[in-house]
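Most newcomers find our protein records easier to grasp once they have seen one. Sequence and backbone structure share a record, each on its own labelled line. Nothing more is needed to start thinking about how sequence determines fold. As an example, a complete record with its sequence and its structure tokens follows.
=====
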Amino acid sequence: MVTLHTDSSMSNQVVRKYLRPPLMVRATELSCCLALIFLIVWPKYAYFGGAIRANPFTVSTLCASLLLFVTLLLDENFSKRIFASIVGGISISMAIAFWCAVRIIADLYSKSPDAIGITIHDITNQGVFFLITIVVVNSSDGLRKFLRIFIFASLALFLVGLYEFIVGDFFMNLFKDFLSGDSLLLGAKLALKTKNNMIRIQSLFGHPIVFAQYCAAVAPLFLALLFTSKRLKYRSFYIALFIACAFMIYATQSRSGLLAIFLSVSIFVLLYFWRTKEKFRTEIFLLGIIAIMIVALALSSTIMGIVYGSDISEISSTMARATMWDKSAPYISQSWFLGYGDGQSIFLGGLSFASQEAQYSSVDDSALSIILNFGLLGLFAFALFVGTILWSNAASLVKGDRSLAGIYASFFSACVAIVFVQKAISITDNIALLYVISGAFCSIQAKKYLQ
């Protein structure tokens, strides 16, 4: 008897052969790892091509998102693991959903036709990393993969920063002739920033403060690896990475970055030793607070200079933020609940700045930007998102596995550093790290329950 192969039966065979669940899971895990790498190391302003704005970050994120969606449909076990992670950190998952929902509602309520598009772009390029990180950490030996991605990506960023410090020019200026996009934006991103006749390095980020924000966030992670590693060569490597974080922040000359790394490291050390030295918890907590106060008093004049500005340019930036609030006050009073829609803050409260190569507008205060875009409800939703991350990690630090104390303490400290620096800028590139931290935490919690 001869079997006739119709087009539909042959297509089904092709689907079963090339879309087998194990193969799709491996492809999805690999694409998610690549997307996470490019999230960290690729400049978000650097695009190639003409009308189609594409770069390794956008392409890898799109591929990871599509593969993730298809694999969720094809592999039941994979779907159960992802769902277990979402449920494992249900409070964080719900806070993220609420934050995204408030943004969409505010955009639909606003009169801006572009607002909803900007929000969808942010969710698909940042919020999706909550799920992408869940996939990475849920994979075989996933937590180690996750940590290695940050270790080697940070090393690459530090090497680029060192190049800029030595050469006195931004690394991406080597490739500016090959980049496409808004010429004014590229001019602003690649124009040299100087202070005290010294270049402010920015590595592969769009601004020195954003690079300093990243360094302050990952510094506690390197301390956690240092404290938990037993081999001398690894401990030496993590010490070098931590020193590199501090040096990079110095080279960015970011006031908020210096305060952020002081805060994040102090909080991490206090939390970590409080959890791992249970017999001396009270003593460690009191001594830690006293030590922080002594250091703060000893550096009080320096800290005041950092906060209020020690030279004309720093004082001017502080005064500019105050001017932005004054300019925005009438608009806030008119639409205080849901704001004016995503992307509108720059038109309502932004000030114009001129560099050597470009003129641009900016709102150098993330809280003000959120209020203008999404109202006080949006600010509450974002604060709830951040607060839920902090609370969940703090609770797990107190009651969870002591072997993971370094991870929980570093997540907590990194979140503090990110939000602290975010107050001084409106560039949201590193907000994606909050979604990454959330996804990693939820996956760790889910693995505990599944075991």
Summary: Confidence is low (pLDDT under 50) at residues 1-5, 14-18, 306-315. The chain has 19 helices and four strands. Strands lie at 194-195, 198-199, 351-354, 359-362.
